[in-house]
Amino acid sequence: MFKDLIDLINVLSRRDFANASNDLIEYVNNAKDFADILEQIGTIPESIKHDSTEEKLFAKASDAVLARAFRELGLKATVIKERGDSADVAIESSLYGYAAVADAKAFRMSRTAKNQKDFKIAALSSWKQDADYAILCAPYFQYPRFQSQIYSQSIDYNVCLFSWEHLIFMISKGIKESLKVKLSDFWNFGEIYSHRVLAFERKKYFMDKFNESITNALQIDKNIFADFLKSYINKISERSVVEKTYWKEVKSDIQNYSKEKAIKELLKAMKIDEKIFQIDAYVEGARYD
Asked: 269 with 193, same domain?
């Protein structure tokens, strides 16, 4: 289950990152409760600290989950081991011969405003290299709801704005690429949609139209997917209880601090000693020869 994955990440964070990443990928590949992991992976637990080893391992786990999800759809998919300027997952279609790259995105529920830089659409397009398509997989309800530059960028760069919820729905329906279902029609939505929309409308929210193109291609009533999304909101609400509980416990702990500990923690949070050290280092390094 998802909780077991988080427990494993906490254990592996004390080990060499490369070996820990391999262990995580193997765990995800063999997980029997994959559906539960897939449903939860789009949300980073509040208990995982920013810029921590645990956060980096969570990102690697999300890559592995995304790769396995694409394999569940009948595609070849592997985690790209390179770190830095590259996509997360490499995809191939044995049936149609196309290649794609995909990027996995997860956000904290407490994260405030997200902008186009959070989705890295232009970067993902450049990471495509010789592949035919680029796919961004993010939580459905984290996409901007009305209008955003990311929709224009998706069309301009032909990057598919996909979601974990799309994957969950398609896998639950037993969808696989076949002679009847060519998944590249979905990955190519930006190019197809570019011929239907006027220039001044390119920033408008188009996920509803993307959903309709998927359900039409799969010959599934669009209301079935709409009902699925509505029911998924309940899962998000359930998860929010867990995340809020974490912060309430942190708040309770802080309220029980002694005066001395409160001062110590405040000084630590403000990084005052580090700032003083950096000022001294700046002065020390100032030279004019």
From this structure: no
Q: b/e string for 266-287 if b means 16 or more Cβ within 10 A?
A: eeeeeeeeeeeeeeeeeeeeee
* 95's tokens: 């049936």
Q: Please state, in angstroms and as integers, the Cα–Cα distance from residue 246 to each residue in 88, 190, 204, 237, 285, following that order.
A: 29, 39, 36, 15, 43
d(CA 12, CA 56): 11
For position 289, what pLDDT does the model report? 61
Same domain, residue pair 197 and 264: no
Residue 126: half-sphere exposure toward Cβ, Cα within 13 Å:
7
Cα 133 from chain centre: 18
Nearest CA-CA partner of 36 in 71, 78, 70, 6: 6
Over the stretch 134-154, which tens digit does the pLDDT of each residue have?
A: 999 999 999 988 889 999 999
Assess contact for 235 and 184: CB atoms under 8 A: no
Assess contact for 37 and 5: CB atoms under 8 A.
yes
- Give the pLDDT mean for 216-224: 93
Nearest alpha carbon to residue 134 among 165, 180, 164, 90: 90
Residue 87 has pLDDT above 90, yes or no: no
* 111 shares a domain with 181: yes
Pair of tokens at residue 10: 């906490």
Residue 208 resides in a domain? yes
Token pair for residue 182?
Answer: 């060519």
